[in-house]
From TrEMBL, chains A, B:
Pfam families: HxlR (PF01638). It comes from the Archaea. This is Transcriptional regulator, HxlR family protein. The keyword Transcription regulation applies. The keyword Transit peptide does not apply.
Amino acid sequence: MVTKPPSEETDEPTEVERRNADVCNVVGSIEMIGSKWKLIVLNDLREGEKRFNELKRSTGASSYTLSRVLGDLEEAGFIENRKEFEAPVASYYTLSERGDALCPVFESLDAWGDDWL
Amino acid sequence: MVTKPPSEETDEPTEVERRNADVCNVVGSIEMIGSKWKLIVLNDLREGEKRFNELKRSTGASSYTLSRVLGDLEEAGFIENRKEFEAPVASYYTLSERGDALCPVFESLDAWGDDWL
DNA sequence: CGGCATCCTTGGAGATACTG
DNA sequence: CAGTATCTCCAAGGATGCCG
């Protein structure tokens, strides 16, 4: 949104410059995943494939909420769902490639927590 | 200083927080800043110092919402507030050291947006 | 076990008006 | 300009129950 003057083309633009550039981009991401439960579920799935009730326990979300959040995330392409219809039905959730690409975000957050929490 | 009636964030850890505290502190961070407006305001302040109405315009938040979000963020130590009482009163907001340390998170988010948005 | 339907409560958040 | 005070509306989300 903010246009900034051209500059040296080193690998590393100035901080201010870079910040001005990405502010808008980030808002789009926030609109998609910037809700408490979506973040928590995505973060939780970094540990690997999990089933519904497993996620329910580890995240603390109610089944109603979890169901909707998983639906939203799947629809938006952040996670994938594999179902087993046999004997005890099971539903496994994993991060999609798109969702997995968010890991650095959570890692940054984790690093921040180490220093400031 | 004190967050008023509507949304009050207690310091009491939730069940979820307690359960996952030692596993990963991401959840704690999410509890603190994982709401749409907090993320948007923090992200916006990466551009540098801004005043109230400036933030109001750039984020699109109402003054009511913005006022509360800024109060919460300041109370939690993510931002700092400098006031000028002269002629036209002015109130400037900037990221604190603690808040600035979150920049890598937004940079990761931006990088993700470049690839997947 | 997974997960949708229903009810119900809470708070997130806009619009508007007012004050120092 | 920088907020605060209300009033109001609606979505988020917990609890419960049911069903394949």
